[in-house]
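The following block was generated as part of the benchmark described in Methods. Ligand: 3-isopropylmalic acid.
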Amino acid sequence: MEGGNAHRAHRVTLIEGDGIGPELVAGALTVLEAVQARTGVRIDFERHEGGAGLYRREGRNLSEQSLQAVRESDALLKGPTGLPDVRRPDGTEAGSLGGVLRTGLDVYANVRPVKLLPGVESALKLRPGEVDYVIVRENTEGLYLSRGKGVGNEEAMADTLMVTRKGTERVVRFAFDLARKRSGAPGDGVRRVTCVDKSNVLASYAFFRRVFDEVGEEYPDVEKQHLYGDAAAQALVMRPRTFDVLVMENFLGDVLSDLGGGTVGGIGLCPSANVGDAHAYFEPIHGSAPDIAGQDRANPISQVLTLEMMLHYLGEEEAGEVVGRAVWRALETGALRVAANGQPEGGTRRAAQAVADAVAEA
Ligand code: IPM
Ligand code: MN
């Protein structure tokens, strides 16, 4: 082992989730086994149930004990949760754990890398690595603070978009600190943070921009840029190489991260980290795709790259890098091929095995 130190075993909670969740998590664990053999990294998992399946049986999507287990562990690895037909009385999806976990753990930065990998067909006709930016989505307030709190009646409904100084300062700082650790936008190598808002229309977004500008003064070495959310949607398609880190309110980040995924082969390849000062959890950015669940068709790459993000968070830099390189290599050599619809040729299990096999040479 490196430095003669045996690896400390990390304690990680595991929630497989709904729909394709269990297949994806199994795929990630196949890769992790190979990484453990190569690097000595040790993870002790404790399985808990959460999501729409549990809600249907028990009327809650996560138990208090499970939330406590997450709080006491080093991290949570989860598959996608939620099913479109399992809904709360107010019509929203009951299986989504966003409310209980994002707010409950105060994980305020939703970190969503958008990266073009080799062998993946992109609508943009760019080379691998030419798209490589991170969307930092504010995760505890914005429009989604209204989750479960919409007010109205059969004639009208309203949700409130709340932006606070504290909430904005911390997520903006997170974005600038992340930019300092990266090597800039692929197009010009410039470290750049783009603030995305609709400050031309709403006071809450104008406030977000003001706080961004204030915090930005602490980072003279990082370039600052502003974009309206609608213009950002166009720019992410037309000039993705110019982006490095983008920071934005919750709802804008939800929408634009799926748009970004659509430019790099689909959200089936997109991981995320939900990070706060005390806790973190890791999940793909997409849903549980019940239409293809249990058919060995889902792409496990999102979940495998989610594992990579978790390993880095746990301080297992080598293991994290090995996972990233193994995915790259499996795609580059054609051992793992992604079809135009985003699904892996040969199925979920075979795709995960291809990455696991690539670990040895990565
Ligand atoms: C995401 C998801 C969730 C969200 C859903 C499942 C509630 O789309 O993580 O982006 O909107 O936050
Ligand atoms: Mn989403």
